[in-house]
Amino acid sequence: CSRPQKVCLCPFLPVHPLKVSTCLYIIQHPAEESRVLRTVPLLAACLPPDKCKVLVGRRFSEDRYPELATVCRNPNTLILYPGAEATNLEEVAVMSSSPSVMIIIDGTWSQAKDIFYKNCLFRLPKQVQLKTNISSQYVIRTQPTNTCLSTLECAAVALSIMEKNKNIQETILRPLQALCSFQLQHGAQIHHSKEHLLKNGLYDKPMPKNKRKLRRMELLVNNVKI
């Protein structure tokens, strides 16, 4: 896990990498590389190297990333990005029997949106989303809404659906639960979602002057899906 011995997470990782047929391509925004408590390294530690490939960057052209371009043109490739165009992953998994490739964008919502819409390659795969109401266990980082999940959590849920094996989700979430537990024991505070803080009058930061951001916060308070 590459962490100090005092807070080592290796005992919470699977003894052997999980055997999965689905290959993950994690498209990571450069800002995530410098975060101390990022979840992608834990995800990669749970899976074989050839089943979890991390590409860091903002722009991905076909010339610079020929392998990724080939993956995006593969009819079995899915991209996990919610929206009006997305199909629930559960429905796709029922109809699919062949090994798949799944692309997941790692970053804040605004960073993920920027990567998705400014890279035409990511509009080629079938767009899917998770139909789940589970709350994030990544409680040491603020999420926009109560149902927003970290990259590791998204991957855990998605893989359990694609592989039709709920044990995968439990195994991948175990090191995340341990990470949060260690951090809370060493002074970290539980971070409620922005949605929770706004609805309960606990949001103590200045309200944004940008009308678009202000409108998004109003939608959160009024329980409107954004």
TrEMBL record:
GO terms for biological process: tRNA processing. Pfam families: DTW. Residues 1-188 form the DTW domain. Keywords: S-adenosyl-L-methionine, Transferase, tRNA processing. One of its GO terms (molecular function) is tRNA-uridine aminocarboxypropyltransferase activity. Belongs to the TDD superfamily. DTWD2 family. This is tRNA-uridine aminocarboxypropyltransferase. SMART domains: DTW. Its EC number is 2.5.1.25. InterPro entries: DTW, DTWD2/TAPT. PANTHER family: TRNA-URIDINE AMINOCARBOXYPROPYLTRANSFERASE 2 (PTHR21392:SF0). It catalyses: a uridine in tRNA + S-adenosyl-L-methionine = a 3-[(3S)-3-amino-3-carboxypropyl]uridine in tRNA + S-methyl-5'-thioadenosine + H(+).
